[in-house]
Amino acid sequence: MSINVERVWWKPVDKGEKIWIIIALMWAIFLFVMMPWWHYYGKQNPSSETYKVSPEKFQELTNRMIEQYKVGEDAGIPVVAPPPGSDVFLLARQFQWTPVLKFKKGETYRLHLSSMDVQHGFSLQPTNMNFMVLPGYDYVLTMTPTETGTFEVVCNEFCGIGHHAMVGKIIVE
Amino acid sequence: MSASNEAFRTCDVTGFRVHRPAEWLIRVNAVAAVVCVLIGGIYGLLVALTRWPAVHLLDAAWYYRALSGHGLNMLIFWIIFFEVAGLYFGSAVVLNSRIAAPKVGWLAFILMVAGALLVNVSILRGKADVLMTSYPPLKAEPMYYLGVILFAVGALLAVILFFATLVVAKREKTYQGSVPLFTFGLTAAAIIAIFTLAHGAAIYVPTFLWSIGLLPGIDPAIYRTVWWGLGHPSQQINVAAMISIWYLIGTLTVGSKPVNEKVCRGAFLLYILFINLASAHHLLVDPGVSSTWKVWNTSYAMYLAVVASMIHAYTVPAAIELAQRRKGYNKSLFEWLRKAPWGNPAVAGMALSVFVFGFLGGLTGPILGTEQVNIIAHNTYRITGHFHGTVVGGTTLAFMALSYYIVPLIFRRQIAFPKLANLQVWLFGLGVAGLSATMMLAGSYGVPRRHWDIAFSGAPFGVEVNPAAYMWLALMGISAIIAAIGGALYCLIAVVTVFFGKRMDSPKDLTYPVSAPAPDAGTGIAPSL
Ligand code: HEM
Ligand SMILES: [Cu+2]
Ligand SMILES: [Cu+2]
Hints:
A: alpha+beta, B: mainly alpha, binds protoporphyrin IX containing FE, binds copper (II) ion
């Protein structure tokens, strides 16, 4: 088999291939349009509200909220019931979420996420919603709980050897 | 200056003029690849047996170390060593050319081996518990980043050597017309590799400087953006290489030729142009990136690359069907498929690779890359399931399948245990299909990836994980064992063949025959049914 390849670029495209390419292209264009459509007309987009924040500042904001609205303790972690509509802070650090949050069903909260040290993952279970938590960034999720119950916040970004024990809690009443 | 004649041998099977220095480079890179897949496979099995809750084999620290070792040895070292061997084969051997600068090839090889060693030692010492993504501010020892950089520089030199060899072949007129499709596809892969490696340098060099204290810090959001500029497009290198191999295996085993090469080549061009921005889908639930950026990159860039994949999904099987039909397998709709040479592990391996890549890996990719769906999938086991469909069931299996031709042709040995070779591709292919599917199913219950214990021992609060997830994780463990046996057989066959296989003296010693080109019916599509 010595190499002697004919020039390929001028050969007309076969009919079967043409049909397939058109189908593929139309499907792609359809989804290409659906992406912005889902974003602008749908109601379940990941948030894009972000601010820069230093760990010290975020710690301070969290502490202030805890002082104001603390209602108890659970497993040594403060439980906080912030008023509806308020700014709520959930602080991640190796290997703990602070504080435990108490929300009211049907009310809207602005949940701020940030980290004191490395990257963490906010994974709300069993609802299964997942967001990244980065140090230096304040990620704001505007959320309205629609179900009562106890929800766990699992860390799902590797953050060190104790990563698997990093579980927080959100209670909706 | 042309190389002296002893530097070449003529292959009695293919008629290629094989440049001996190129042949040696292919050999050493292939051997290094097999060593890495063996190490990575052992790690993979250990990791899988830890994630099977009833077994839970390793302790937490060693689970994360094994996971780092698995990701790096498999996704980076095995894949890239094999690709470098493939690049030398696709340039020097396929084009009958000398390799432009063998010394550069050896330098590249030494750098890559040194890099892989540093990384592995660093992980085993417990000084790089950062997983393969090494997201800052998690920090590894400097040696770890240095290892990655050395490996990448070596890989870059190898890619440059590939381009230089293309130039030499063109200038010395060792072939006529366009380069073959296989080489064209590899060229697409190599072009993507260049800008991928540029992203790699842009992120690993500052991170290395940070680890030795010369930089105060690395912004975690910028790191993620640039790192995925490396991490995602590099997967398109693997896809382009894999598809090139599919076409090559078709040619070798049934003598196929694409219906129209222009279409296949055009699809490769789409990869080069549109895959780079698709890295956005790793950042869909990150702070710091705007919605406009996400929407634009997931719709515009991703879908034109998807068109390319859809085109290959047609042209690859069409080429084989056409060749088979021209050989006379025209009865019924699927005689061409039934009468394919299934006893040849390259054929079975390729078919499984196409199937697992297409239906498990490929199909799920654009779904997970949708902004809204990503909220329920990010960092769950669904992601791990997706890419075990693409880069394991697809790319790795295609590489294994091609090995059954490359090893005899390049090492001049007969494949040891040919019967086992057939079993090998089926065990690996079906094992990985199971692995991929069960991971995705477990992930759909929110089971996180990269997580030592879904019983959450030591956590302040319990988490009730759906019992179905436990079942899928157990089935994942079983699939992993099957896949691991398939992988181990591959290593066994490769090592025994290379070091102890019977020497090949003439074309009839070839374990699996190279098919004559299927009869050419001129232009146009297959004969009527
Ligand atoms: C016998 C074959 C294999 C088995 C049983 C296997 C199994 C696994 C398992 C169980 C995980 C862990 C996921 C987790 O806990 O988060 C994993 C991760 C991974 N595997 Fe494999 N795998 C195999 C082959 C491969 C191959 C061939 C590649 C690449 C070419 C690969 C690439 C990866 C990567 C990149 C990760 C993610 C690592 C990370 O999250 O940092 N695997 N694999
Ligand atoms: Cu964490
Ligand atoms: Cu974590």
